[in-house]
Amino acid sequence: MANPKRRHSNTRTQTRRAHDFIKLKSVSKCSNCSAPVLPHRVCMACGFYKGRQVLTIKIKEKKKS
Fold first, then answer.
1. Total-model pTM
2. Please, which of 17, 24, 26, 55 could form a disulfide with 47 given CB 3.0 to 4.6 Å?
3. Residue 43: burial class (beta carbons within 10 Å; 0-12, 13-18, 19+)
4. In the chain, what is the straight-line distance between the N-terminal and C-terminal CA atoms, in Å?
5. pLDDT tens per residue across span 16-41
6. Contacts 24+ apart (CB under 8 A), 43-48
């Protein structure tokens, strides 16, 4: 296998890696409850998708001590 004869400079390495950063996910808000939701996903806060209820979400109640 071929190996590099000379090492790459820091600038050359950094320009190659310039596009390897983490991109932010696009987040929209739910039309029903305004919670942040990923696009094309069911809202896990209220269970709505495209204006209609798809899931029924159970609400946890606090226990009395």
1. 0.56
2. 55
3. buried
4. 70
5. 999 988 988 899 999 999 999 999 99
6. none
